[in-house]
Amino acid sequence: MPSQLMPTDTRKPPLSPTRHKPRILVVDDDPGLLRLLTIRLRAENYDVEAVEGGPQALAAAGRFRPDLVITDLRMEPMDGISLLKELQVRWPGLKVIMLTAHGTIPDAVQATQMGAFGFLTKPVEKQELLDQVQKALRISGFSASDENWRAAIITRSAVMEEKLAQAHMVAGTDARVLITGESGTGKELLAKAIHLASPRRHKPFVAVNCGAIAENVLEIELFGQEKVASTGATTQHPGLFSTTDGGTVMLDEIGDLPLRLQVKLLRVLQEGVIRPVGGTQALPVNVRVISATHRDLQQLLAQGQFREDLYYRLNVVHIEMPSLGRRREDIPLLVAHFLAQIAQETGQRKIYAPEAVELLATADWPGNIRQLQNVVRQNVALSQAPIIPVELVQQSLGGGPGHLPSFDEARDEFTRSYLSQILQITGGNVTQAARLAKRNRTDFYKLLSRHQLTAEEFKQR
Fold first, then answer.
1. 382 CB burial (10 A radius; 0-12, 13-18, 19+)
2. pLDDT tens digit string along 34-80?
3. Domain shared by 209 and 315, yes or no
4. Residue 344 maps to which CATH number?
5. In the prediction, which pLDDT does 226 show?
6. How far apart are CA 76 and CA 69, in angstroms?
7. How far, in Å, CA of 192 to CA of 194, rounded?
8. Most exposed of 41, 198, 257, 349 (fewest Cβ within 10 Å)?
9. Are 298 and 168 found together in one domain?
10. pLDDT-based confidence at residue 161 (cuts at 50, 70, 90)
11. Are strands 234-237 and 225-228 parallel, antiparallel or unpaired?
12. Do residue 335 and residue 391 come from a single domain?
């Protein structure tokens, strides 16, 4: 997918319409305290969502994408420690502040030892609250970042939003990231997004495919080369670890990196210096390394094809990109995005017939987003009319009607998937789900009944 990202500004002007305010999720089963904290934080220009329990907090976090969570320690049925553990699993790096009464301070200290950022005692003093919040946001790397950092990633999927939230949290650090997932899922786009959300955003981002370049060429490309002429003069060819100073290097398809170069990369990561091929002078390295692969590195480890020590150096934070089949609700958005790109490039403005969109949304996509983009481009090129028919999509997918679900089956599958996704996003709240679907509650309940779905299945327990 072509990138349309622009660098963001590291300065800190007043919040503009393109910048999002810091998002804070407040969790407490005391409605009075919840209301007080919400008022205080909103008065400081924070975007606040308030919920009255742990299960509701988990449902809200996937939709709201908070930069910070403030939660009570003692709650039922899920207490603050259990909520902290679950948040750490789903969104590593998300800062959590605990609220505690004087009698539970030892528990709060234990929570900080388990990864909570800190704790506040009740009654919460206003300035202490604001100081803790500012410190937590600063340490998490949040800087009222421009939303353009994620502009190239087209999504409304709750699954994908979790990955983006995780990416945004780690972006403020220099932790190395390993991105895994099937080919065509957008691993390089996510790596670029992490770079653009990071303090390194104004420095270069360079991606190199470790499986597409001959070993000797890849060695020079990464680590550089020093040549000595017959006259005794030396010529330096700096590698990416030198030329990308201050920026980000993405090592794509890291699973294909030859073992000899794995040793060299490990040395660079351990020592923080680079020694060019044939050279003796060590040069300091100041780059962030993001790796990506579609291969199973654990299997490569077992087969002796990938070094275990390098694996743990690269895999500080792991983000797994979902396949397109796990984010089907994004397919209509992606199709519209690709059609708009093609129209801008060629002047050919075409749209899909509704049946064709539904077929695209329910088809198998082993090649993921890359395959979908190729099908859209092929359809636009071959369509004789401004409206692309379903028959052309069937041909592009390599089968006739006998190999595909009927229109009614495809529509029902798409509708059921859509309803499931929207209920998952809202945690089974029918009122919110109906509002997002732009249907009244009565119609929405009828749809649920028709597709044998119940809101209770999606409520957090």
1. exposed
2. 999 999 999 998 999 999 998 899 888 877 888 899 999 888 888 88
3. yes
4. 1.10.8.60
5. 65
6. 17
7. 5
8. 349
9. yes
10. confident
11. antiparallel
12. yes
Of 303, 322, 341, the residue at which a domain comes to its end is 322
Q: Do 267 and 307 sit in the same domain of this protein?
A: yes
Q: Is residue 9 part of a domain?
A: no
Gap between the Cα atoms of 149 and 47, Å rounded: 19
CATH number (domain holding residue 274): 3.40.50.300
At residue 14, the pLDDT reads 33
The domain tally of the chain equals 4
CA pair distance 452, 413, nearest whole angstrom: 12
| 390-396 long-range Cβ contacts below 8 angstroms, 24+ apart | 390/353, 390/355, 390/356, 390/359, 392/356, 393/352, 393/356, 393/359, 393/360, 393/363, 394/359
Residue 387 has pLDDT above 60, yes or no: yes
Q: How far apart are CA 424 and CA 418, in angstroms?
A: 10
pLDDT at 399: 59
* 159 in the same domain as 33: no
User: What's the pLDDT tens digit per position in 67-117?
Assistant: 899 999 888 888 888 898 888 877 767 889 989 876 667 776 777 778 888
Choice between 404 and 122, residue whose per-residue pLDDT is larger? 122
Query: Per the domain annotation, does 87 fall within a domain?
Result: yes
Within a domain: 178 = yes
Report the b/e string of 386-416 with b at 16+ CB within 10 A. eebbbebbbebbeeeeeebbeeeebbbbbeb
Q: Are residues 69 and 173 in the same domain?
A: no
- Residue 275: pLDDT band (50, 70, 90) is confident
Type of residue at 413: E
d(CA 241, CA 454): 54
| 334 and 287 belong to one structural domain | no
Both tokens assigned to 94: 């998300």
Q: Is residue 80 part of a domain?
A: yes
Parent domain of 108: 23-139
pLDDT-based confidence at 138, cuts 50/70/90? Answer: confident
State the Cα–Cα distance between residues 298 and 302, nearest whole angstrom: 6
Distance between CA atoms of 260 and 294, rounded to whole angstroms?
21
Same domain for 317 and 216: yes
Give the list of residues 6+ apart from residue 260 with CB closer than 8 angstroms, or none.
215
User: How far is C-alpha 440 from the chain's CA centre?
Assistant: 32
